[in-house]
Amino acid sequence: xxxxxxxxxxxxxxxxxxxxxxxxxxxxxxxxxxxxxxxxxxxxxxxxxxxxxxxxxxxxxxxxxxxxxxxxxxxxxxxxxxxxxxxxxxxxxxxxxxxxxxxxxxxxxxxxxxxxxxxxxxxxxxxxxxxxxxxxxxxxxxxxxxx
Length: 147
Hints:
This protein is an alpha/beta fold. It contains 5 helices and 7 strands, in the order βββααβαβαββα. The protein starts with 13 loop residues before the first strand and ends with a helix. The mean pLDDT is 95.
């Protein structure tokens, strides 16, 4: 897999959301998409990041952004995490690590590295965050778009 770079087209993928609906990244053409990869549900950093995005969802929606979180956690773990923190975006269970590998974020521990990709409406990569400020990630995204 070639390294993903800003300005290049992001690889498409499909997933089943927690309501059982099959979704393709292509379903979001015409929207900006923030795909954020994270190591594990219910850990301090991952919880801060998810809650940052949840709390800023109205502002993100005004900027025409869809949010997708991806980790190798099970669907059951994602359901519990979503319910516990009232998350208002899709979490993708990538137990096979297919999407994690596709985006080149598999770490040495066998889970996803914390990394985010912001795609434009045609799914070219606008910005890659290799270092994410978990509690302020939504602000990072909004500041980038407003700059």
